[in-house]
Specification:
Elements: H1 18-21, E1 35-44, E2 49-61, E3 67-76, E4 82-91, E5 99-109, E6 121-127, E7 131-136, E8 139-144, E9 150-152, E10 171-177, E11 181-197, E12 200-209, E13 214-223, E14 226-237, E15 243-247, E16 253-258, E17 261-269
Parallel strand pairs: 9-10
Antiparallel strand pairs: 1-2, 1-17, 2-3, 3-4, 4-5, 5-6, 6-7, 7-8, 10-11, 11-14, 12-13, 14-15, 15-16, 16-17
């Protein structure tokens, strides 16, 4: 492997998450129509990122030729409680980016897994060519699309193959932040870079010759890894915490970071049941 090929962990903002990127598995050249991807949810600190939970995406075709995307998001909050969010999105055959509809349920669970009824929240959404209708607490709010693709946060992870490529103009979108906060945003490709994936940080013994004899000194070194060409994307906009995405040639999001939260891919299985 060329010595000048950088590790993925040297790219911004991946450096803070490098211990988690070491675990990135070797992935198949392409994903099928159905898959499950598991991401480690990371919280961003000054010098490193720590594990805060898990994000699981399950994609499968539906009977009408569209796609179903299930989202399980579990994040640690206070006193060993967990915020558990479950989303089901339905995408049509013609548009892999904007869902036709979705349903969401969230609740906070105590350390024994018991839900707190006071924290429950449910939401249903229907998307038309003109607006997004979001119903919660018995009220419906209609958000104008103004001709833009309407994409909820986690829906972004399922559609990199439809994002603008290198040299293409940035794409305006309507980001539905936290699934219901409309924010005009711009999705842009920032280019490609060849990096090493899955390099391991190991202890090696280095020989140090002395005037008489020699000694061995342990030191950290990086070993192995496999080369891949990653594409970097930026998501920005008024009121949008800037996102950085890195995708592989199969259009999988390997890493995403925004503000104090990041996601690192841990595993992919070739079914929607894994």
């Amino acid at each position: 492997m060329p010595e000048d090929t950088p590790r993925m962990g040297t790219l911004f903002p991946c450096a803070l998450a490098e211990p988690f990127l070491e675990r990135l598995p070797e992935l198949p050249p392409r994903s099928g129509d159905a898959w499950t991807r598991r991401y480690r949810v990371l919280t961003v600190g000054m010098k490193a990122m720590g594990s805060a939970g898990a994000l699981v995406l399950r994609r499968r075709p539906d009977a009408d030729g569209g796609v179903l995307l299930g989202v399980d998001y579990d994040r640690s909050v206070v006193a060993r409680h967990v915020c558990a969010v479950r989303v089901e999105m339905v995408f049509g055959r013609e548009d892999p980016v904007t869902p036709l509809r979705w349903s969401l349920h969230s609740v906070t669970r105590d350390p024994d897994g018991n839900p707190d009824p006071l924290t429950e929240y449910a939401q249903d959404a229907e998307v038309t060519a003109d607006h997004v209708a979001i119903t919660a607490h018995g009220r419906t709010r209609r958000i104008p699309r103004r001709g833009l693709p309407a994409i909820p946060n986690w829906g972004l992870f399922a559609s990199p193959g439809a994002w603008p490529g290198p040299g293409s103009a940035e794409r305006p979108i309507l980001l539905l932040d936290d699934m219901d906060q409309p924010k005009p945003a711009r999705l842009a490709c920032a280019g490609k870079q060849r990096v090493l994936l899955g390099a391991q940080r190991l202890v090696s013994e280095r020989e140090i010759p002395l005037e008489r004899g020699r000694v061995w000194r342990p030191e950290w070194v990086w070993k192995g890894g496999r080369a891949a060409e990653l594409t970097r994307y930026h998501l920005t906009g008024d009121g949008v915490v800037p996102y950085v995405f890195y995708t592989d040639p199969a259009a999988r999001v390997l890493f995403a970071g925004a503000g104090t939260e990041a996601y690192a891919l841990e595993a992919e299985s070739p079914s929607a049941e894994g």
